[in-house]
Amino acid sequence: MAAHGDMCLLCGKSDGLVPDHVIPLSRGGRHELYNIQPLCHLCNFRKAMRIIDYRTPAAMGDKYCQMRAYYAELANKQQILYIA
Ligand SMILES: [Zn+2]
Q1: Distance 76 CA to ligand 1 centre (A)
Q2: Ligand 1 centroid to 67 CA: how many Å?
């Protein structure tokens, strides 16, 4: 979370942050750091079950590679149809 500036990646608010799963757990996402981004309650609610990655490769560091590999793995299994 701190790597992303302790603020909502969508609206920039710094209060009421929750760890959002980029790929929702209900769609095969894992509860791992590389699948988590900070969003405020409202933006998390609006994102709902969609797969949207608001993070930048720079802020993610080596987790960016893990995430890309993870996307490829899921795409192979056809668990996801697109990458936002
Ligand atoms: Zn927000």
Answers
A1: 32
A2: 22
Say how many Å lie between the CA of residue 43 and the centre of ligand 1: 4
Residue ranges of E strands in 1-84: 17-21, 36-40
Residue 64 lies in a domain: yes
Q: What distance in angstroms lies between residue 51's CA and the mean position of ligand 1's atoms?
A: 16
What range defines the domain where residue 59 resides? 2-76
Q: pLDDT digits over 16-59, tens only? A: 999 999 999 888 888 999 999 999 999 999 999 898 999 998 88
> Model pTM?
0.82
Q: What is the CATH number of the domain that holds 69?
A: 1.10.30
Rg (CA), the chain: 12
Q: Mean pLDDT over residues 5-11, rounded?
A: 91
For residue 45, is it within any domain?
Answer: yes
Residue with tokens 């929750």: 18
Structural domain includes residue 83:
no
- Would you give the DSSP letter of residue 3? G
